[in-house]
Design a protein that fits this description.
Number of helices: 5
Radius of gyration: 22 Å
Strand content: 5-15%
Oligomer: single chain
Length: 143
């Protein structure tokens, strides 16, 4: 999308692919697939039926309440060996649009120049700072 830059997409397509990966690589996947096939339904339909019965069995207020105390941070690929620098600006879509607009309007001559001018580094995570006690430790950039 931007020449010479990496882009990470975190929308519905990548979320769906992540769910497929988790389901297909789980130890119970073959059992789940066989059970779904025996009922002539998809794995997703079976999982939804299981969740619906859990809502009933646990007297849950609604489906999403089943996970209110479960927090998962899967780390499948990550940026091992690289620094991760988050922009200080929380509205990344607006920041990206401003950068593209600055180049289009000729206020800045390149994407790189516009990014340097409009973006400010926020939190920085170093791979060397990840360890068994705190795999997701974050640090502030030097001031």
């Amino acid at each position: 999308m931007l020449p010479e830059y990496w882009l990470m997409e975190g929308g519905q397509s990548s979320t769906g692919a992540l769910l497929d990966y988790i389901i297909e690589n789980h130890v119970a996947s073959p059992l789940l697939a066989n059970r779904a096939a025996s009922q002539n339904i998809s794995v997703f339909e079976l999982l939804n039926k299981i969740l619906e019965s859990m809502v009933q069995d646990l007297n849950s207020r609604f489906l999403a309440a089943l996970t209110e105390d479960i927090h998962v941070l899967p780390d499948f690929h990550g940026n091992r060996g690289f620094s991760i620098v988050l922009p200080r600006e929380s509205e990344s879509v607006l920041l990206g649009a401003a950068i593209l607009g600055a180049v289009a309007s000729k206020r800045h001559s390149s994407l790189s120049d516009a990014m340097k001018a409009l973006n400010v580094a926020g939190q920085r995570t170093e791979d060397k700072d990840r360890g068994p006690d705190n795999p997701h430790q974050q640090q502030r950039p030097p001031q």
